[in-house]
Design brief:
Length: 904
């Protein structure tokens, strides 16, 4: 078939074209990239230039550049590579870890402890800070290294026409895409990745996939334009950039050739391409994530407590006991006792462990550790349709005759057309629609081998039909022409009266609105001949019917959607496809699309109105990248924790706007660099695995915070009360330090626990107000147990205030503190039955170890060195009674709390 070609000579110039928009450099002059860009990508209101004008502006021609010219331009413009992330150094990672609010609070406490000469507390605290930073830095370094291994160039080589000297013939060479420069003439073939932004000079049946740029799943027909077209302002409803993507003469880096081939001139490379422009570095700045908001809220709650505690201790002791600054170390120890100093270590360990298990078991890479918490907190997941809910291929739904009734004849002749078009036109690969038709015919055992192929007119984006000429068995001297293609194009070639044509068009429109894609099929017979068949023979056809196709559903999507619904995650579909197509796919998967919101309605809503509408809408159609980002931002404004799954440049704004950006491993380079989580493949089931892991890790962190903060608050209240009631310090600073070390060692088990199954049912969010209510209630209960212990000690020791009595008091309270902490770890752990059938194994071991230390340490020589003494047997009997009552109170309070929480 002859190629359609753009004029390359003076005769093709439009005399009415605006000459001011064209830059014609002198021969051999270096091209002005800015001027060339204005010509190739004109502003709204400008007319699009012709191919000749583009070639002139680039100081190039249909035969390509000279090698000398290409070398000069490569030096001037740089290599054709995308902007890449710079690797983060280890020192930078370590210092960045210090910005974590909990780590910063702990660092400040360590420095304050050192300032008051509490060297033991200062040393332990600063060691914990260093360990936490090292753990986080190491895990993020591992994630970045894994992501770097996934990097791949958008294309590796390109077929370029270059000349050695002006009189030499052009020679086609395979060159690395890095060496492409503006003005290079390249050839495109099926399967090629477009290596730069280009303007078509010639093309034959060329279609390209632009899903990475626009989100449209279907290939787009491309062909050269020989005359200036209408201004950009009237090209598309979505603005200048979207208008560029719809222009048939332009192809962009990041797209790929689906069928056909052509020749094009490179107009932009490297950072000047639309692919690179879509990923502006300023867009990398994302607002605070769910983890950031939660951590900051809890941190400031703790900071207020810690700033208030030391002055209260000092003032109370000064006013009631006449003690002065000698109580400052004790006041600092009380503040440290309130602080969950193991929190940075446990948070980092729990998240790093979850991330490692995800990478090992599911191939999911978590690049930013807090993103694992955000995965667990997701309550809205925004996805595209293609590749997530549906596969990027069609399947035949049914075959209909002209009356709209089921009839296999249209499918039969469509399969004959597809088979012989593929064989006789020497196409490199069948079109996706042809593959679907042939697969359906094979399933129905259609007999196609009885026909002999004579000729074929392959699909052309201008004609929008394909025709096969065959010989039917027993029909000597007759050729049968079978034509299939776009409904309007086939109907205008059929011998139909106008009412019938209108009726069939209306029927096709109704089917299309229902989410189906229609191919019209027609045929006619001609006397056999040896003369070649042309498009002029596609006239007077007899209409046979329609072949209706739909998007093939992703096999795992239905189960994954059900699993996400059970997890309390609402799935919202944001797509550039037609409303009817996406609504049908959702219904087929069991996801109620409700009222589909189109881009026109989104544009008409204010940000506040969109936030309200987005919360109750499931499907958004005909969305541009800007629409997707605005919808995600609106959902966050409405208080939802959002995740966005994308894989193309068009998804970058929405990925930046979401709490967490997710992409598959085969996504474009810049999408992988932007994403917080990289999946092994674009599969909702993999996201369910990641959400499960995030909730397990977040559940452990939440359990640790609840237990530790409530226990610490109870101890602080008891210390303040004891300091006011007793003539001596209720616990020595060294004893507070050892007690905290024991707590810290036991609490490390939280990072390795497997929390209860109910943790997986709902998003796990660390809400400061919820924590404050929990720790206040259970902290007061813990303080009550401590005060009861004081009474027990007073009774068992007969209220002695001697030196021996002080040592016994310190021993008794030390033992009680460790035992109550062990009880709290076991009884306040969320739920009873762990996910996966195990029930808190690490915590049981840690609680037993804590109990043993609490009972035995005062009896050892180390206890004597710390100022503790042996306690009378009566104390242990009375303590057992207090602990039994405390355990009963904990269970009752937890049951009441869980009932109230479940109702809310």
């Amino acid at each position: 078939m002859p190629e359609s070609s753009a004029a390359a000579g003076p005769g093709s110039t439009d005399p009415d074209a605006p000459s001011a928009a064209v830059v014609v450099p002198m021969a051999g002059a270096a091209v002005d990239r800015g001027a060339a860009t204005d010509v190739v990508h004109p502003r709204a209101g400008d007319a699009a230039p012709t191919s000749l004008q583009v070639l002139r502006s680039l100081d190039s021609g249909p035969r390509g550049l000279l090698e000398e010219q290409a070398g000069e331009r490569l030096t001037r413009f740089g290599e054709n590579t995308l902007p890449a992330w710079r690797p983060v150094s280890w020192p930078s990672r370590f210092l960045r870890s210090l910005r974590d609010p909990f780590t910063s609070v702990l660092l400040c406490l360590g420095l304050v402890s050192a300032a008051v000469a509490s060297w033991g507390t200062a040393s332990v605290t600063l060691v914990l800070v260093v360990v936490s930073c090292l753990l986080r830095s190491a895990e993020e370094h591992r994630a970045d290294r894994s992501t770097a291994a996934l990097r791949a160039l958008v294309a590796t080589t390109a077929t370029v026409l270059r000349r050695v000297d002006p009189d030499a013939a052009p020679r086609a060479r395979e060159l690395p895409v890095e060496e492409l420069v503006p003005g290079d003439v390249i050839r495109l073939a099926p399967g090629d990745l477009v290596p730069a932004d280009v303007r078509l000079l010639r093309a034959s049946g060329l279609t390209v996939h632009q899903s990475a740029l626009t989100g449209e799943s279907a290939p787009v027909a491309k062909h050269p334009v020989d005359t200036p077209s209408r201004p950009l302002a009237t090209d598309a409803a979505y603005g200048d950039v979207e208008g560029l993507f719809t222009r048939p003469e332009l192809c962009f880096q990041g797209s790929s050739v689906a069928s056909g081939g052509g020749t094009a001139v490179v107009t932009a490379t490297g950072a000047e391409t639309r692919f690179a422009a879509a990923y502006d570095g300023s867009a990398r700045r994302r607002g605070a994530s769910a983890f950031d908001r939660s951590v900051h809220g809890i941190s400031w709650t703790l900071i207020r407590f810690m700033l208030l505690t030391p002055p209260l201790v000092l003032m109370a002791n000064a006013a009631l006991r006449g003690r002065g600054l000698e109580t400052l170390p004790f006041a600092v120890a009380v503040a440290v006792g309130l602080t969950p100093e193991m929190l940075p270590v446990i948070v980092t360990t729990a998240l790093a462990r979850g991330a490692s298990l995800l990478a090992r078991d599911h191939g999911v890479i978590v690049k930013r550790l807090p993103a694992l918490h955000d995965l667990g907190a997701i309550d809205v997941l925004c996805v595209d349709k293609t590749g997530t809910l549906t596969q990027d291929r069609p399947v035949v739904e049914h075959s209909l005759n002209a009356s709209g009734r089921s009839d296999p004849e249209a499918l039969h002749w469509a399969a004959v057309n597809a088979l012989w078009t593929l064989q006789l036109a020497d196409l490199p690969a069948p079109d996706a629609l042809d593959e679907a038709v042939l697969d359906a015919a094979e399933e129905r055992d259609e007999e196609l081998s009885a026909y002999d192929g004579v000729a074929a007119l392959p699909f052309d984006p201008v004609r929008r039909v394909a025709t096969a000429v065959v010989r039917r068995p027993g029909r000597l001297g007759v050729h049968t022409l079978v034509t299939k293609g776009a409904v309007e194009a086939v109907l205008e070639r059929c011998a139909l009266d106008e009412p019938e044509r209108i009726r069939l068009s209306a029927f096709a429109a109704r089917e299309t609105a229902n989410g189906l894609r229609l191919l019209a099929v027609a045929r006619t017979e001609r006397p056999a001949r040896t003369r070649a068949y042309t498009a002029a023979d596609e006239r007077g056809l007899t209409f046979l019917g329609f072949v209706a196709l739909r998007d093939a559903l992703t096999p795992s999507a239905t189960d994954a959607l059900d699993a996400l619904r059970d997890r309390g995650v609402a799935v919202k579909v944001l797509t550039g496809d037609d409303p009817g197509t996406v609504a049908r796919a959702c219904r087929d998967l069991g996801l109620d699309p409700g009222e589909v919101m189109s881009a026109e309605r989104i544009d008409a809503l204010s940000d506040q109105a969109l936030a309200e509408a987005a919360d109750r809408t499931t499907v958004f159609a005909r969305c541009t990248p800007e629409h997707k980002a605005r919808i995600v931002s609106a959902l966050r404004t409405a208080g939802r924790t959002t995740g966005f799954l994308g894989d193309g440049v068009n998804d970058l704004p929405a990925m930046h706007a979401a709490d967490i950006g997710i992409c598959p491993r085969n996504a474009v380079d810049v999408a992988r660099e932007t994403a917080d989580v990289v999946l092994a493949e674009k599969d909702l089931a993999a996201i369910d695995d990641a959400i499960t892991s995030g909730r397990l890790s977040s559940g452990n962190i939440a359990t640790y915070l609840r237990i530790t903060l409530s226990s610490n608050l109870g101890n602080v209240i008891a210390m303040l009360a004891a300091g006011l009631m007793l003539p001596f310090l209720p616990m020595l600073p060294a004893q507070v330090l050892v007690q905290n070390l024991c707590f810290d060692m036991a609490q490390l088990a939280f990072a390795f626990d497997r929390p209860a199954a109910e943790v997986l049912r709902w998003p796990t969010v660390l809400r400061p107000r919820d924590f404050l209510r929990f720790i206040t209630g259970f902290g007061l209960l813990n303080a009550t147990a401590d005060l009861a212990t004081f009474a027990v000690l007073a009774y068992a020791l007969h209220g002695s205030a001697t030196s021996g009595g002080q040592e016994a008091f310190h021993s008794g309270w030390f033992t009680e503190n460790l035992l109550t902490q062990a009880l709290v770890m076991l009884l306040l752990r969320t739920g009873g039955q762990a996910a996966g059938g195990r029930s808190g194994g690490p915590l049981r071991v840690a609680a037993c170890g804590l109990s043993v230390v609490g009972l035995l340490l005062p009896l050892t020589p180390l206890g004597a060195l710390l100022g503790m003494s042996v306690l009378p047997p009566l104390y242990y009997l009375l303590l057992a009674t207090v602990l039994a009552l405390y355990a009963y109170g904990l269970r009752a309070a937890r049951s009441r709390y869980e009932r109230k929480w479940s109702r809310s």
